[in-house]
């Protein structure tokens, strides 16, 4: 077992997997997939979700070795410590309790000996009441008109999670129906073009602005907040801010200082990491305003379902654990650096500050539908090996059946979902191409090595509940990876560096513009660029 001051890579279990890589390099998915009992063992149907990981470059032995690694990393103990409200985010001395955000009203989740669930539900009840009043028109704007549009201002975790859920819900029939006549927009970038795009076509009289910021200090968000405050008050007068601006934050003092009534502020807590905050008021408020609280409550229930699954299922049947272990296998052993997620796992040191001799985290990218196929899949098929996650649903949100078509539109889409993983796994040999009479000079170009790993996740549908499940699977997967690597998945000091350099530049711009001070203190390149910009 790895002690708290040693690295997981020093354990026999890690070295055993390292040695095992050589064996795996001699296998090909083409052959592995002929073993049906292997495929059956690597196919899981749990909590309504199918996970097929038979197209991973892994044998049953690999999986057993990964379970042993999980044991060496005390994975179960770390999961228990997360759910137990311990301060596992040690660099910030905070618990990591996003699971409490979607716990049922009667659940007990303690942090420092205190059950946090009643506090969570106090805010959820406040959101329900507020969003009901906005939606039924009993809360009106400064000129007496109902507020039908919402601009949520926030960045990073205070934006991307809510945007993901909004994008997925937009086409869900139930959600769509309850959003009728309403618009939800997100303003994240500080680029004035983004401000213009977001307010174009909106009337301040009928718009509610929600400022979403955990710290209420993030430069981009606060500047955008001031810009929209100006937009409202120049159109409707300064007193209109009280009716047209509300906030989500852990820093209620700064919210009040900004000029937003604390009664119109929705709290969350420092035990919610920014990147894990979509189930707090960060996501629940704007999404409830758009779709109604009852729809978003289903989303929370879906996430909670996976929280229970993650906590209680044995590793062999635990979707986030399996996905996390496979990521560790792909990144740290097979050396495949890419996949898709939102996280804080790109670390160079262990949680105890020891330099890591192995890679952590993944470079993430992806694309809905078959757009990816028509753009970057060439790289995946014949370029670098990039493990893929294919996520599909059995039932479309909006099925279309055209009378003269062989299959429905959804079947057409899903044909690709089923075909791509096999295309990547099997590839195509020169032999096969010869048999197809492909002209010899084209054979090297049309040969595919295959042996490219993927997992397939199949959900029953994409309603609010399933979206919650999907979100929680990916959140917990990141935690599993971090627990195995022995890093802190819940802080992000790397992001701070860029922020402090931007502060230095901001000061320079101000000094040059107001006092004509020359650009100084930067390297040649930055000095030249800044000087050119200021001319
Ligand atoms: O820079 C990263 C980060 O701190 C994220 O964790 C957070 O989601 C984002 O910035 C925005 O921060 P805030 O919610 O405090 O405005």
Automatic annotation (TrEMBL):
InterPro entries: G6P_Isomerase, G6P_Isomerase_C, Phosphoglucose_isomerase_CS, SIS_dom_sf, SIS_PGI_1, SIS_PGI_2. SUPFAM superfamilies: SIS domain. Pathway: Carbohydrate degradation; glycolysis; D-glyceraldehyde 3-phosphate and glycerone phosphate from D-glucose: step 2/4. Keywords: Cytoplasm, Gluconeogenesis, Glycolysis, Isomerase. One of its GO terms (biological process) is gluconeogenesis. Its EC number is 5.3.1.9. Gene3D superfamilies: 1.10.1390.10, Glucose-6-phosphate isomerase like protein, domain 1. It is an enzyme of class 5 (isomerase). It catalyses: alpha-D-glucose 6-phosphate = beta-D-fructose 6-phosphate. GO terms for cellular component: cytosol. GO terms for molecular function: carbohydrate derivative binding; glucose-6-phosphate isomerase activity; monosaccharide binding. It comes from the Eukaryota. It is found in: Cytoplasm. Its main location: cytoplasm. Belongs to the GPI family. HAMAP family: G6P_isomerase (MF_00473). Homodimer. This is Glucose-6-phosphate isomerase. It comes from Lupinus angustifolius.
């Amino acid at each position: 077992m790895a002690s708290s001051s040693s690295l997981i890579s020093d354990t026999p279990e890690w070295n055993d997997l390292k040695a095992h890589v050589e064996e795996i390099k001699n296998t090909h998915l083409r052959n592995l997939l002929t073993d049906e009992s292997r495929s059956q063992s690597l196919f899981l149907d749990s909590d309504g979700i199918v996970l097929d990981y038979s197209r991973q470059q892994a044998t049953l032995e690999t999986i057993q070795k990964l379970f042993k690694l999980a044991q060496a990393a005390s994975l179960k103990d770390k999961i228990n410590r997360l759910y137990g409200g311990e301060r596992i985010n040690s660099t910030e001395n905070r618990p990591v309790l996003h699971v409490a955000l979607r716990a049922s009203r009667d659940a007990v989740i303690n942090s420092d000996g205190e059950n946090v669930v009643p506090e969570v539900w106090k805010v959820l009840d406040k959101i329900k009441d507020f969003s009901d009043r906005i939606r039924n028109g009993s809360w009106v704007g400064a000129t007496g008109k109902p507020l039908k549009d919402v601009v949520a201002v926030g960045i990073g975790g205070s934006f991307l999670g809510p945007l993901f859920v909004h994008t997925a819900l937009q086409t869900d029939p139930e959600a769509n129906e309850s959003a009728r006549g309403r618009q939800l927009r997100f303003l994240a970038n500080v680029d004035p073009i983004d401000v213009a795009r977001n307010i174009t076509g909106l009337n301040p009289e009928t718009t509610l602005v929600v400022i979403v910021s955990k710290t209420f200090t993030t430069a981009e968000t606060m500047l955008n907040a001031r810009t929209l405050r100006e937009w409202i008050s120049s159109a409707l007068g300064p007193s209109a801010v009280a009716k047209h601006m509300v906030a989500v934050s852990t820093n209620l003092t700064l919210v009040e200082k900004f000029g937003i009534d604390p009664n119109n502020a929705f709290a969350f807590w420092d035990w919610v990491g920014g990147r894990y905050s979509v189930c707090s008021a960060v996501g629940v408020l704007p999404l409830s305003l758009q779709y109604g609280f009852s729809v978003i409550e289903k989303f929370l229930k879906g996430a909670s379902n996976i929280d229970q699954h993650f906590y209680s299922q044995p590793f062999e049947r635990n979707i986030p654990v399996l996905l996390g272990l496979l990521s560790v296998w792909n990144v740290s052993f097979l050396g495949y650096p890419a996949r898709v997620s939102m996280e804080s796992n790109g670390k160079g040191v262990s949680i105890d500050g020891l330099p890591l001799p192995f890679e952590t985290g993944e470079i993430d990218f992806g694309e809905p539908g078959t757009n990816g196929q028509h753009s970057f899949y060439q790289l995946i098929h014949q370029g670098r090996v990039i493990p893929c996650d294919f996520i599909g649903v059995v039932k479309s949100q909006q099925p279309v059946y055209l009378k003269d078509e062989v299959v429905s539109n959804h079947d057409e889409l899903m044909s690709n979902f089923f075909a791509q993983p096999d295309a990547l796994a099997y590839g195509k040999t020169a032999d096969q191409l010869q048999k197809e009479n492909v002209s010899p000079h084209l054979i090297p170009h049309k040969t595919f090595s295959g042996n490219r790993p993927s997992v397939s996740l199949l959900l029953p549908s994409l309603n609010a509940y399933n979206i919650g499940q999907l979100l929680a699977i990916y959140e917990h997967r990141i935690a599993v990876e971090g627990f195995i690597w022995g890093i802190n998945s819940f802080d992000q000091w790397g992001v701070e560096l860029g922020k402090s350099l931007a502060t230095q530049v901001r000061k320079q711009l101000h000094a040059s513009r107001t006092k004509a001070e020359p650009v100084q203190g930067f390297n040649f390149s930055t000095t030249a660029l800044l000087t050119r910009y200021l001319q």
